[in-house]
Structure formats: C-alpha cells, structure tokens
Amino acid sequence: MPLRLKDKRRRTVYLVMAILVFTTVLTIPTIIPKGVNLAVATSGLLDNLRIMMLQPAPSNTTMGSLIVALFQSIALAFLTTLVGAVIAFFIALMAARNLAPTWLIDIVQTVMALIRAIPTILWVLIYSVALGLGANAAVIGLTFHSVAYLVKVYADSIDEISGDTLSALRAMGVGFWPLVSQVIFPTIASSLLSWTFIRFEINFANAVAVGAAAGVGGIGYQLFMASGFYFDFHEVGMIVYLILAFTIPLEIISYKLRSRYIKRATK
C-alpha cells in the first residue's frame, strides 16, 4: 500500500508538471508581440547583457553618488529591521503558546497573518498615499511588514522552550520580566539573531525595490533611472555589481549564522 501510494503521488506530480509545461508552451506565442523578430531581439538582449556584465561604468552620475545611494538603501534596511525586531519581540511574547492565553494568541497571530498576506511593496504604497512619496512611507511600510514577519518566527522560537520549565520557574516565584530577560531571551538569542539577519536580507531587497516606487531614492532609484530613463546599460551593470558586492557577503554571513543555529539546536 505505501509503495502504491508513493507511485500514485509521483504520477500526480509528473502529470501536473506536464500540464504546466504544455500550458507554458501554448502561451509563449501569445506573450511575444506581433511583428517582433526573435533573432534580432535575442541578439539585442545578448548585446545588452554583454555591455552590462563586461563594460560596467557610471555615465550619468558619479561612482561616489552610486556608493552613497547604496548606503542609503542599506541604512533603510538596517533601520526598519532594527525597529521591527524590537517591536516584534515584545509582540511575540503575546503570541507564544507557552506564555500567553489562547484568546490573545489567536488575536495576535490572526492580525500578523493578515499583515503578512499583503506584500511589503503594497504596504509602502498604501502609506505613500497617506503620507506622500518619500522616506517616511518606506520606513513605516517596511517596518510594518517586518514586525508581522518577525512576530511569527520569534513566537515559534519561544514555543521551542519547554513549557514545563517555564511553569516550574513561575512556581518558584520568578516574575514575568525576569523570566523573559534571564531565561527566554538568552535561550533563543541565536535563533533571534539568525531570523533577524534573514529579515535584513529581505528588507534590503525591498529597499532596492521601493527606491523608485515610493520616491525614496537609494540605489533602487538610480537603477530605475539608468534603465528606464537613460537606457544606459553601462550604468545598469555598475549598479548591479554594487548590489552584488553587498548581497553576496550578506548571504554568506546569513548562511553561516543559520548553520551555526542549526548545529546548536541539534545538540
């Protein structure tokens, strides 16, 4: 029976994949505009990629301006992650099943799930309508979504602590805040660091995306201007390399932090 069930699931997966491939093949011709010469378009694409990757250079601005714009996006990501992490930790205490009553947990988790269901860029645009285009809308929008994301993962980390241990400490007369500061926080500190760093990665990507959409500036705005207004692929390539120069080390650090946390959790 298990073997048959496994084979049935495998056949179902293959069937779904075949349907998706067939649908994709059918819809590709409808995506291509009429009168487009695919050979010429492909050649132009490859030429643009060659310019971007092999001939990067600032043309419409200076290298110093691009570096400053990059640090503006990094600062936006760092600020929203830091503020979001502090707020999320205290809200997570109300969403942890071994700390809070069930009715409060349900309310907090439902609200956070509704916030997470809306993409970050939409929150930024919503606040842009209320506050106008600028850094204020970006900071609030990114922080808002960061809180909802971190509340979930922080609460899950707190749930990993044994409820019996916490109950025993309460029975010994340990107050709530000493319990949080001396037991809960030190126990899950590595997990909090790992999740917060992951959110920092996400917020940097979002900061680049909202740079032009919300009028925030930063490296995202420079990328939008170079590609959408100047069609300067030399400058686009330079901006892409600057972003990669930050995101690749960031990904390596994040991977090492996650690996260290997993090793500690399995010990």
Largest sheet: none
Give the topology string: H per helix, E per strand.
Answer: HHHHHHHHHH
Mean pLDDT: 84
How large is the share of residues in beta strands? under 5%
Distance between the termini: 36 Å
Give Rg in angstroms. 24 Å
Query: What's the total helix number?
Result: 10
Shape: globular
The secondary-structure class comes to: mainly alpha
Binned, the helix content reads over 70%
β-strand number = 0
Poorly predicted residue ranges: none
What is the topology?
Blueprint: H1 2-31, H2 38-54, H3 63-92, H4 102-117, H5 120-131, H6 135-159, H7 163-171, H8 176-213, H9 218-229, H10 233-266
Structure in words:
- This protein has 267 residues and is an all-alpha fold.
- The chain contains ten helices and no strands.
- It has helices at 2-31, 38-54, 63-92, 102-117, 120-131, 135-159, 163-171, 176-213, 218-229, 233-266.
- Helix 5 (120-131) crosses helix 6.
- The mean pLDDT is 84.
Structural features:
267 residues; 10 helices; 84% helix; mainly alpha; 0% strand
How do you describe this structure in short?
The chain is an all-alpha fold and 267 residues long.
